[in-house]
Amino acid sequence: MTAPTTADFHPLAPAVQPVFDTVLTRSPYEPEFHQAVHEVLHSIAPVLERHPEYIDGGILERLVEPERQILFRVPWIDDSGKLQVNRGYRIQFSSVLGPYKGGLRFHPSVNLSIIKFLGFEQIFKNALTGQGIGGGKGGSDFDPHGKSDAEVMRFCQSFMNELYRHLGEHTDVPAGDIGVGGREIGYLFGQYRKVTNRHESGMFTGKGTGWGGAEVRTEATGYGAVFFAQEMLGVHGDSLAGKRVGISGSGNVAIYAIQKAAQLGATAVTASDSSGYVVDDAGIDLDLLRQLKEVERARIVEYANRRPSARFVEGGSVWEVPVDIAVPSATQNEVSLADAEALIANGVRAVSEGANMPCVPEAVEAFQKAGVLFAPGKAANAGGVATSALEMSQNASRQRWTFGDSENKLREIMSDIHSAAFEAAERHGVPGDYVAGANIAGFERVAAAMLAQGVI
């Protein structure tokens, strides 16, 4: 494998190019991290022209380097009595606005590059929420699929036996991500409580509602991505009502994006997993999908086997299906340039990223050139972490809010994030560019705090 060079990327403005060159040199085999950093540096170059103090203060040089990188082994015993060893990560990227905040991902694809890209994105996403939380991310190359509950518990306990020493409600507050749902969070929190002898409800979010969790936290990322799409359409006098929506994935984000789209008058017609996708022109049956994915942990083909109006397509791309609105909700870089071109040809009106960086840069560029409304993940899927911060607030005050109250707060936060990104794009001469707007709005908040707090 050849390390990438500057020539492999579009050139950046002179004020930011040296910073990116340093990232390539220090982290030569981390393509996802390079992609995330390049996008942000490209967007914020105009800000530096107006604020040379950020250059003088070395804001960028510090921003692209994590405050702390934690890498550790996770030994555990499977049900056959055999020793297994996985690798654990926690990247504590920036605490300038508050304790590190970001999920844990358990998936075979997890490596340092992916965790660093997710942690870097989390800095700006969390800043956009206005909730006083910093950016971090973690996880492991452990695959919970096909594992028994006992195996998942033993892995989670071993994982937390190391990570606990780096966490705390005023230090670092993890949550779930791909492969980490209610089951995993329960085991992780239980082990943290055991080894610390403290019941710090506020140091883990996404907990069960019966033991410190917040209403709407489970639904928040999917709901938020749909709320953001509604906000974008509203600027142009349109809405989700009557729209046909394409959604990828079949996990937590996808399920609740499907639910909220239906509640707002749209029809979600697709869902997918690594084996292929289903199309249901009658609208995805949410109860069936949840039964298959959350209870039976079955493959998506079973949906078509039990639903006469649906058909299963093995492999292929879910983005071949004609839709008005697309909500990529599976994983990073799932939407290729060819996928974007197919969506555009079929008349897609808006794209709202439910996952983190699911569209490759060429796809984003194609959407923008075609006039498709495009919401980047750091803005569109910020509802999850925003509601996590609300969960932290409830834990700190020993309060519980109703589902309706929590959903209203989420809707307000997503509206505020949309306004911040929209207005930042307008101020810097790129109206309608939500990628630039979200990066600029998040960066301005982080950079001002870094400058105020000195060289840390």
TrEMBL record:
InterPro entries listed in its UniProt record: Aminoacid_DH-like_N_sf (IPR046346), Glu/Leu/Phe/Val/Trp_DH (IPR006095), Glu/Leu/Phe/Val/Trp_DH_C (IPR006096), Glu/Leu/Phe/Val/Trp_DH_dimer (IPR006097), Glu_DH (IPR014362), Glu_Leu_Phe_Val_DH (IPR050724), NAD(P)-bd_dom_sf (IPR036291), NAD_bind_Glu_DH (IPR033922)
Protein name: Glutamate dehydrogenase
Organism: Microbacterium algeriense
Quaternary structure (record): Homohexamer.
UniProt keyword terms in alphabetical order: Oxidoreductase
Lineage: Bacteria, Bacillati, Actinomycetota, Actinomycetes, Micrococcales
GO molecular function, one term: glutamate dehydrogenase (NADP+) activity
Annotated signal sequence range: none
Gene3D superfamilies: Glutamate Dehydrogenase, chain A, domain 3, Leucine Dehydrogenase, chain A, domain 1, NAD(P)-binding Rossmann-like Domain
Domain Glutamate/phenylalanine/leucine/valine/L-tryptophan dehydrogenase C-terminal residue range list: 214-454
Family statement: Belongs to the Glu/Leu/Phe/Val dehydrogenases family.
Pfam families noted in UniProt: ELFV_dehydrog, ELFV_dehydrog_N
